[in-house]
Amino acid sequence: IEIVPKRFIVECRMEVLRGRVHFFPFSTHSTYFSIRARASFKVQQGNDPFFQAAIERASLRFRESHSPDPLLIDPYVGCLLPCNSVEDMDQELHPYCLATRFIDDKLLETMQSTDGLKQVVLLTDGLDTRPYRLNWPTSTLVFDICPEKVFRGALQKLQAYPYGTTVDDIDAGAKIPRGCMSFHVPSESFDVENILCSKGFSGTRPSIWAFQGLPVVNLESFKDILSTVSNLAMKGCLFLGELPVWLAEMDVGDHVGDLSAIKKWLDDLFMSYGFRVKMIEYDEVARNLRQDSAKRVSEVSTSILFVAEHLRFSDDQMETWRTEFQRIEEEGDEEGFEEL
C-alpha cells in the first residue's frame, strides 16, 4: 500500500474512484490520504465470498494478536487488512484462533520430532502468514496452495511490510526463516500435483499437510483435495486442519448436530482415501493450551478440527518400488540366460 499524506483533517470518509481508495475530509481541518489499492485487492473482490471469508479470518488473527493475553501473535496480518480495520480488544476467543494455534503447534512439533521431514504443504485462503511467522527448521520447503489473485495481492503487501517501505528496501518485507524456501501453487490449476512436483516436492520424502481456509464449494472439491494428498504423501505422513461442518450435511442430514454421526462420517470419508483420522474437540484444545482459554471461547465452532495419518504409499513410492522390482526381474532373467 502506498500512503501519501496530503493535509491534516479531523474526519474522513472513504470513496472508491478509478481503482484508488481515497479518503475525503468532512471538514476543512482534516487529513487527506490517497491509498493505491494493489491489483488483487481491488474493489472487484468486495463481492467475492471467498475473499471476504479470508479477510474475516485475518481479522480474527489480528484481534487475537492484540488481545491482552494473546493465544497467538501474527505480526504481519495487519498489513493484509483494509485500512479502516480497528483493533478489537474484546477478550473472547474465536474457535478459529484455537484451531490456528493447534495447527501451528502440531506443524512445528511434528517437524522437530520427525527425521527427514522438510516438506510442508499449506492449503490456505491466500492470506495465511505461516510461511513468515512460524520458526521453520532449517532447509524446510513450504508449499502454499491457495487462490492466485489473493496470494499475489497479499505478497505485494507483505513485501512492503512495514508500512511505507517498498520492495527495493533490502531489510523490508516479511521473510521466511533463513535457510528455508517458499513456493506458491495456484489452487485454480488443473494439475496441482504436477505443478507441486515441478516446484520441488517429492513423494519419496516425508511431508506434512495442513488444510485451513482453502475455498471448497462442495464435498466433491474436498474429495479432490484428499485424493491429491493421498497420491503425493508418503505412508505415515500427517494431514491436519479444519474443514467446514456443512460438508457433512448432505450425508449426515438431520444428524449434523450429533457428534458420533459426524465422527463416523469423517472416519468413512478419510478412510476411503487411505487416512486414519481423529476428530479433535475445540474444548479439549482450549483446556490443553491454557486453563482460562475454554472460558474465553466465544461461540460453538462451525468447523471440524482433525488430524489424519496416511496409511497408503505415495504414487512416487509405488513407482520407485515398481522400477526396482522390474530391475531385479530383468537381472534375474539375464543371469538365467547366461547359465543356459
From TrEMBL:
Keywords: Methyltransferase, Transferase. GO terms for biological process: methylation. It holds the Pfam family LCM. One of its GO terms (molecular function) is methyltransferase activity. InterPro entries: Ppm1/Ppm2/Tcmp, SAM-dependent_MTases_sf. This is S-adenosyl-L-methionine-dependent methyltransferase. It comes from Solanum stoloniferum.
